Give the backbone structure.
Amino acid sequence: MKPMTEAHFAILRRHMVEVIALQADLMSEEIGKASLGERILDAMRRVRRHLFVPPELAAVAYHDTPLPIGFDKTVSQPFICALMTDLLDPQPHEAVLEVGTGLGYQAAILAELARQVWTIEVVEEFASHAEARLSQLGCGNVGVRVGDGTRGWTAHAPFDKILVTAATEVPPTALLDQLAPSGRMVLPLGPEEIQQLTVIDKADDGRIRTRSVIPVRFGTLETVV
């Protein structure tokens, strides 16, 4: 069998977005809307997910499933990636913090939608790979560093939006502090066996409002002592 080309991957990517749209329609009661935003779906059509997974998994990169990327970590299934991004609702003028870079796929999606993306990864090998790949693809509005994501990135705070791609039982205090007034955070909350994808909105006066969306299953957010 001959190797897949970018044209083949583009067809699979379009099909992936169609499946995401179908999933959103089927789960409309749970997520509170019948479809995800077109800006989000356009970004999912543009970003080449097969470049953000191990090369041996490129052929299945557009299946609606999480994929292993090493160190007992995965890249989230496309539907969950799209849903979290839609719930976050990043705008072209906003600065976004991502906690949990992985190999950089979610950061690449966010880079299509926000003015600036700052992303933190605890695994040095992941951060190095993501930074190189994002730079190669011309994502000049993404900054990557290695560190403890629970501490945020003080030098660039406050952030309009914060996306956390690993689960924690309570929202990290530092991230709440670094979230701007009128800002929003999206993250999985709860222990490993009972997690809820959660939206946290911060009012102008600093009050916090929390909304659970759907049950999810993520790895645990790691901290560095």
